[in-house]
Amino acid sequence: MTPLLTRAAAGPAIALTMTAGIAAVPAAPPPPAHADPVPMAAQIYDKVSRDGWHMQIRIDNETINSVPNLAEASNSREGFVTASGTATVSGGASPITDSIFILGYQLGCQSDVSTGLQFGGTAGIAPLGSVGVGGGVPVGASVGLGAGAAGFVQTVVQPGVIVDLPLANTALSDGGEAMLDIDNIHIKADACGGAVTIRSYAYLRISTAVAHTEYAIYGDPAKI
User: Is residue 10 exposed (0-12), middle (13-18) or buried (19+ Cβ within 10 Å)?
Assistant: First the structure.
């Protein structure tokens, strides 16, 4: 600190030089903006099974919040989703012996790079990471760079892939109802070389002594 004060006191020419040097320092880039949650259209579907059960499933209160990737990786995408799923059944004659209601998302990657990269013709990769949801539940493969090598980078790209992310499930109650809620759940896709699109889905299956019925509805697709 002492030499700096001595130079500053030596005269205005040195002081001007120091000021110019400070002004030349580039400002830190602003933090990436976070998009606002996007409300999605509600979905509803009615069906009557062949053994007389009137079934209804719906998805509502859905929002998708696409955010900048936390690792700032060009081949990773992430977002947060909120949705409610409801299923009701009534009117059938044969008792329901088994049922399952699922609320989740389908995730589509434009181009999968999970087969690996080559550096100058020399293998230099190791499988790291996954496509998954909050909590690190893996549902697909992805890749990260391990030991590298100098030279060009060659990417082997497979056709696009689609994976299902079941986020919540339950059986119907004795009264024929089921409700599922997900709130601010994290969804991410790694090792995707292009756009990542997601859409919600709700799936209901019921079984009786004489029939087995299953069907699903889907939300509108959205990019993350």
Answer: exposed
pLDDT at 112: 75
Domain boundaries, the chain: 34-223
* 50 torsion bin: left (phi>0), alpha (psi -120 to 50), beta (else): alpha
Q: CATH 2.60.40.1650: does it fit domain 34-223?
A: yes
User: For residues 98 and 206, what is the distance between their CA atoms, to the nearest angstrom?
Assistant: 6
In order, the DSSP letters of 185-202 are EEEEE-SB-S-EEEEEEE
Q: Token pair 């088994």 is at which residue?
A: 98
- In tens, the pLDDT along 44-82 reads 999 999 999 999 999 999 999 999 888 888 888 899 999
Give me 61's structure tokens: 């209160």
Structure tokens at 140: 């697909």
- Transcribe 117-184 into DSSP letters: EEETTEE-EE---EEEETTTEEEEE--EE-S--SS-EEE--BPPEEEEEEEEEEPPPTTSEEEEEEEE
What value does the CA radius of gyration of the chain take, rounded to a whole number of Å? 27
